[in-house]
Specification:
Layout lengths: L6 E7 L4 E7 H4 L6 H20 L5 H5 L6 H14 L2 E5 L5 E5 L4
Antiparallel strand pairs: 1-2, 3-4
Helix pairs in contact: 2-4
């Protein structure tokens, strides 16, 4: 369920456009999450939104391309989000991985 009244607004500028992302404050303010896990959450949040807009599939590999950190480091942050309940992965009946990102746990 979206948290409409407690969103942290993040504006990301690049040369071509402004990207506004409303992130759940619960995630950003959670002191038990590492900075890396929060950064990966932001990247997942943004990529999922982008993929939905263009009708393309979100992949974990897309996260790897967003960071210079190695795969093992990002997998640690990914696991942290899963163990905290903010991220769930499942295999659907067709054998395709599905990812679910939650705004509150």
């Amino acid at each position: 369920m979206p948290i409409l009244d407690s969103q942290a607004k993040i504006e990301i500028w690049n040369q071509d456009r402004l990207c506004r992302v409303n992130l759940p404050s619960e995630v950003i303010d959670n002191p038990s999450l590492s900075a890396k896990a929060k950064g990966v959450y932001v990247a997942i949040f943004r990529l999922m939104e982008h993929c939905d807009s263009y009708g393309i599939a979100f992949t974990k590999h897309a996260i790897y391309s967003c960071f210079r950190d190695g795969k093992q480091s990002l997998d640690t942050a990914w696991s942290e989000l899963e163990s905290s309940g903010y991220l769930k992965t499942r295999v659907n009946s067709s054998g395709v991985l599905e990812y679910f990102l939650f705004e509150e746990v």
